Structure formats: C-alpha cells, structure tokens
C-alpha cells in the first residue's frame, strides 16, 4: 500500500521544487527579456531583417531540437542515477553525451555552412530576404557546437537538482548577446553598423563564452567530471545507444515542431512579409508565458526521474501535484497579459503598425490556450522523467500532422481565409494535445516504471 506523505514532507517537496523552479523561471524570464531586447533591436532595422532571422532560426532550431532531445535523454538517466545515488553512472552518462554530441554537431555545422542556400530555398524567399538569410545562417552556424554543449550542461545539472548554475550561465550569455548585439547592430564605440550580421556575430560570441564556462563547471576542480574523477575519455557505444534511444523521441518531438514551423512559415509567407514578421514577433511575445512555464516541464522530468530512481511512489505523486498547482498560478498571470494587453506587448517589439495589428490577433488567440498548453508541458515532463519519452513524441506528431499543418493548409489555400484562421488552427492543435497528454498520463502507471521498463541506473 502506498504511504501517505506527511505535511512536513509536502513542505520539503515545495521547497525542493522552488529551489529548482526559481532559478529556471528566472532563467526563462531572463532569456525572454533578452530575446525581447534582441528582437526589438532587429525589429528597428526592417521587415527583411526580421524575416531573415525567422527563416534562419527555422533551420538552426532543428539542430537545437535534436540536441535538446539528446540532453533530455541524458537528463533522464542522470536523474534516475542521482535518485539511486549512483555517482559513477552519472559521470559516465554525461561524458558519453558530451563526446558523441560534439562529434555529431560539427558534422551538422559543416553541412549547414556548405548548403545554406539550398536549405533556405525551401521557403522560396525573395532575393533580398534570401541574401540576408544566408548571411545570418552561415554566421550563427558557427555557434552550433557551443549551443549543444550548453544544452547538455544545463540538462544534466538540472537533472541533479542544480538549477542555479545553468541560470548563472544564462545570465552571462544573454548579457553578452544583448551587449555585443547593441554594439555591432547599430555601430557603437567606433564600430561600423553591421545590422543583421552584427546580431549573428553577437550570438556566436555569447555562445562560445557560455559554453566554455559550462565546461569549466563540469571539468573544474569540484566538477562532476573533474580529471581526478573522470579517467575514461573513450566512446562507449552501448551507453551512447541507450542515451540516444531515450533522447531521440524527445528530439523528434521537437523536430516535428521545427519541421512544421518551416511548413507553416511557407504558408504564412503566402500572406506576405508583414504577416511573417508579425508571426515571428508574436512567437517572441508569447514567450512571456511559455519560457517561464518551461521550468515546470524541466522540473517534472528531474523530480519524477529522481523519485523513480529512489523507488518512492508517494514522493513522485507529491511532486506532480505541486508542479501542476504552481504552473496554473504562473500561467494565469501570463494569460491575462496576452489576452488583455496584446498591443502593449507588440509595441515593445516593433513600431510598425501593420505588424502590430496582425500580431495582436495572434497573441489574443494564443493567450486563450496558454493554460492547456503549459499543463500539457508538465504532463509530458512527468512522462519523460518516467522514461516514457515516446508518448510526448506521439502526442506532438498527432497534433501537428493531424491538425496544425493540414488545418493551416486548408484555411489558407482552399478556404482562402484571413491569416487569423491559421492562428485559430494553432490554438485548436494545442487544446487537442493537452487532452491527449492527460488521457495517456492517466493510462500509464508511471510511478512504477523505470525508463519504460528498463532501469536507467542498471
């Protein structure tokens, strides 16, 4: 019979959740604010610059999604090993993830630099947009290996309950990105104004410095991978296979979103570059909600993984209850902002009236679905922590390819409706995914599962 958790234990659960959520939420808010500032600087250039950033991001975000998935796979193993107090396993998983990821991401980087025009041609952009997009994509691709390192460092540290260090690294990265961006985009301190190229260079500089700091945290004197503790630097293909087997579904979930975003951008371009700019800025504005709420998904994976590693069912349920309550409270605030003050938010990002008008409609519709979207994020985080990484992938695939993409295509090309109809289709997709995630969560007995039937700590 499952033990009933005491009030004292509930207090401890809340304290542990807060100790992780506060840094993750602060990191999310920081990234959101820095993203706002960076986008606002680019938004002051012109619509072409905004569009070039948007198209290039569709490519780089696929690579981000892949390695975010790999980091998630490593985090599941690390969290469960941490719960079982298996330090040797933790070190081995982290090292194998880093080694394999660096090799793989460099191959992707070379391909993107070489084939940037081919990759961007799928959007069928105009000549000026194409030239700017190629320039931006080739420069930012230089930072991809460092981006992958930061994802892995942040993921494994959070899996062990250390959210403060990734937050500090994020503070440094975003400060550098904004600072160098302001100097290079507009030409300060004697530098020539570089526009969109300056934004790309600033991002790469920030990523390099932050990745070096992250590696120092892992390999330094007191780091989990210090040379005093880590003796083996060879690839362990059996362990790598397990990590990627756990992480690939999470990666594919994000890749589905990125591929669908490429298709969606192409559909939106049917309505012109102003509509694309409004969508890009709307996504940035929507981060008011989903960036802070992402912390709840990360915490869900870490704490449920730790509870399962410790074989403590009641603790897992206590974490789940408190995470849902916290997510509801936070999302309610951001929902009010998006629904009732959308024009204020959009004006922070651009002064172009037509872009603002389209973006306001996007924010209102997305505001209406923030609660189901973010609660689904917690449910999916819980499922990942239990090792069921395939379920969130299936949910994402069903919503994206069953509702979002075909729905957008129908309203744009067959019904020839206004751009707002696409925003509505996106909202319906998010509601459907919440319902499906909830049903599958109820079906699975996650608290008696070790990585989908195989213990991560064995």
Keywords:
15 helices, mainly alpha, single chain, 458 residues, disordered C terminus
Can you characterise this structure?
By secondary structure, the protein is mainly α. It contains 15 helices and no strands. The protein is globular. The C terminus is likely disordered.
User: What's the β-strand tally?
Assistant: 0
What is the mean predicted local confidence, pLDDT? 83
Structural class: mainly alpha
Question: In DSSP terms, counting alpha (H) and pi (I) runs of 4 or more, how many helices?
Answer: 15
The succession of helices and strands, N to C, reads HHHHHHHHHHHHHHH
- Measured between the Cα atoms of the first and last residue, the distance is 26 Å
**What is the general shape?**
globular
Strand content: under 5%
Spans where pLDDT lies below 50 across 5 or more residues: 450-458
Helix content: over 70%
Q: What summary fits the major beta sheet?
A: none
Our Rg estimate from Cα atoms comes to: 22 Å
Secondary structure layout:
Elements: H1 7-43, H2 47-83, H3 87-120, H4 127-140, H5 144-159, H6 164-186, H7 196-219, H8 237-268, H9 273-309, H10 313-340, H11 342-347, H12 353-368, H13 370-385, H14 390-414, H15 419-443
Helix pairs in contact: 1-6, 1-9, 1-10, 2-3, 2-4, 2-5, 2-8, 2-9, 3-4, 3-5, 3-8, 4-7, 5-7, 6-7, 8-14, 9-10, 9-12, 9-13, 10-12, 10-13, 12-15, 13-15, 14-15
